[in-house]
Input
Amino acid sequence: MGAAVICGLIATWSGMSAAQPVAQPSWQQEYWARFDNKDWDAAIASAEQLVAASRPATADTGLRLSEALSLLGGAQLNKGNLVAAEQAFTEAVQLAEKYGSRTSAALIDPLRGLGYTLATQNKHAQAIPYMDRALLISRRSAGLFDLSQQGLLRQLADSLTRVGAAPEAERHMQYVLRVGEHVYGEDDPRMVPLFCVVGDWYLEVGLVEPARQLYRQGVSLASRKLGADHVGVVQPLLALAQSFPKEIVLSHLGIVTRSDKLPQPETTMIMEPMNPRYLSGEGERALLRALKILETTPDRSVQTYAGALVQTGDWFMFKQTPARSMPYYEQAAKLIAEAKGQDAANLQSLLSFPAQVYYPIPSLATRNLNRPPNEVVERFVQLEFTVHEDGSVSDERVVGQDATERQVSQSLEAIRSSRYRPKFVDGKPIVTTAVGFRQIFRQRGGAKETE
Output
């Protein structure tokens, strides 16, 4: 199975914002104040004023207008106005080329923004050339090891992975580490978040052992340099723990994870599904150590602590031991209830609705994942069911489908065996009815209906 498919199945997308200048010009101050507060409507309005004030484009105003359009595109991208963002960044590129040069540093932000916008629309093949060009200009302007290129390297790696160019993506992720080592030094604790970033990429493409090596390296470095009980050890500990459930998810997709080499597109490797009850003791110890550190850190982040508690609850739910999950979920629910301001807003979704923790993917749903869209027909089974206080599922039924009998049967069996993080109200788990889930099957065009 290709790395692009794996990435699409288990990775979550987070929006990429335009890079904020280190020193903000005075004419942009209002915009960045709105941007920093994530008030996207106000940031868009401010940027529109800057754009209007810079028109029409002349030899004197062309580059300033390009910069204002990049600011506008950045706010529109974060707002989710992708068509408008693409238009703004496209015009910004054209202006920077016309009034600067094809290698001008003024092109970095609009090229990067256009690449990010296209990637957000899953137009990765179109996005890659713009980001490649932005990276080349950035290195010519700021040097080979400038920290500002890290966002570009990460997004380039993600887009390359999704189009099946994992080896090239790996080179970009390794360069993230090289940049950090050059700027910070190999033994600097500021390398720890970079180990986690690159480790996350390896995990997404199914290379579990290289990912864990980086997480362990992060734990070791942070423990030596900051102290074994320092909050800086928490991030790699949580990442290491999460790699074990993800490995089981990958195994249910038939992916061989115990390898240190990227899978070749033409290679078929099958792995037997792993049993969720036998999660590694190393992962559990990592989780409990992270929680102990957070419990004894007075100025801990509420979001990090609540997230770690929920992750620990999920760990035991994944292992089919809901009784051990509940104390962690309940403690997280208490933290969420006490949270204020932005913390409360960011944490509200954690326990406000059932979340799928374990789902044994139907074997028929793992077929044809690498085939291009023109070679497959997508079928679906839409299910509805009840999630109980202990995370178990009952009353499952089909509410819509165009699938085969076997596909329907496997979908019902899978949801019956799944486990959910329950919804919490007033600090306690409750039964939730009419929870929905859609299972997609990719069937070869022309294949028999019974497949």
